[in-house]
């Protein structure tokens, strides 16, 4: 009731593919000119080879791809010295060293040590040499004794009941015979 639409979608402008291509070409041209100026300032100014490359369109296409591969975005302007940054180098199958000893990371080493320690402990535990195993065995012995005593008491009670029942039956049979 009375709501108006937002202002976000009013002036949408769509860039045509031709305009995008033109912008990319302009950026590449600008980058190439800057690169030539930098190289020219260092030493041999106005190398004829470089001027020829900027005129020939066949060779410049290949250079554009190399240039874009080397520097994306702002990377070309800023020297990055990040010790944690891993630059991935692709290896061919022939270069891979499968036979050599594989370097384990700290986590993997610790995990393996933990596993081995656990196995050693379990062997000791099963042999009954650890403190916990000794305590468990003592507890089990006590429980075993208690259960034996309980079983013995039950057995005695059952025998007593049986004898009482037998005595009761004898009395009944005697009274019936009379």
UniProtKB/TrEMBL annotation:
<dbReference type="InterPro" id="IPR019380">
    <property type="entry name" value="Casein_kinase_sb_PP28"/>
</dbReference>
<feature type="compositionally biased region" description="Basic and acidic residues">
    <location>
        <begin position="148"/>
        <end position="164"/>
    </location>
</feature>
<feature type="compositionally biased region" description="Acidic residues">
    <location>
        <begin position="57"/>
        <end position="66"/>
    </location>
</feature>
<feature type="compositionally biased region" description="Basic and acidic residues">
    <location>
        <begin position="99"/>
        <end position="114"/>
    </location>
</feature>
<feature type="domain" description="Casein kinase substrate phosphoprotein PP28">
    <location>
        <begin position="82"/>
        <end position="159"/>
    </location>
</feature>
<feature type="region of interest" description="Disordered">
    <location>
        <begin position="148"/>
        <end position="178"/>
    </location>
</feature>
<feature type="region of interest" description="Disordered">
    <location>
        <begin position="1"/>
        <end position="114"/>
    </location>
</feature>
<feature type="compositionally biased region" description="Basic residues">
    <location>
        <begin position="1"/>
        <end position="11"/>
    </location>
</feature>
<dbReference type="Pfam" id="PF10252">
    <property type="entry name" value="PP28"/>
</dbReference>
<protein>
    <submittedName>
        <fullName>HAP28 protein</fullName>
    </submittedName>
</protein>
<dbReference type="InterPro" id="IPR039876">
    <property type="entry name" value="HAP28"/>
</dbReference>
<feature type="compositionally biased region" description="Basic and acidic residues">
    <location>
        <begin position="47"/>
        <end position="56"/>
    </location>
</feature>
């Amino acid at each position: 009731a009375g709501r108006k639409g937002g202002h976000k979608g009013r002036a949408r402008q769509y860039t045509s593919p031709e305009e995008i291509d033109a912008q990319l070409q302009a950026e590449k041209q600008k980058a190439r000119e800057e690169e030539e100026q930098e190289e020219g300032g260092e030493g041999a100014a106005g190398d004829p080879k470089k001027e020829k490359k900027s005129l020939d369109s066949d060779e410049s296409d290949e250079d554009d791809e190399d240039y874009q591969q080397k520097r994306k975005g702002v990377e070309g302007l800023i020297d990055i010295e990040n010790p944690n940054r891993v630059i991935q180098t692709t290896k061919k199958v022939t270069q891979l060293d499968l036979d050599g000893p594989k370097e384990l990371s700290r986590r993997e080493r610790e995990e393996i040590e933990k596993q081995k320690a656990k196995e050693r402990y379990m062997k000791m535990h099963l042999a009954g040499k650890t403190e916990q195993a000794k305590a468990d065995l003592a507890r089990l012995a006590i429980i075993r004794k208690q259960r034996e005593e309980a079983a013995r008491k039950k057995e005695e009670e059952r025998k007593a009941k049986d004898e009482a029942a037998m005595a009761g039956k004898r009395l009944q049979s005697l009274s019936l015979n009379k």
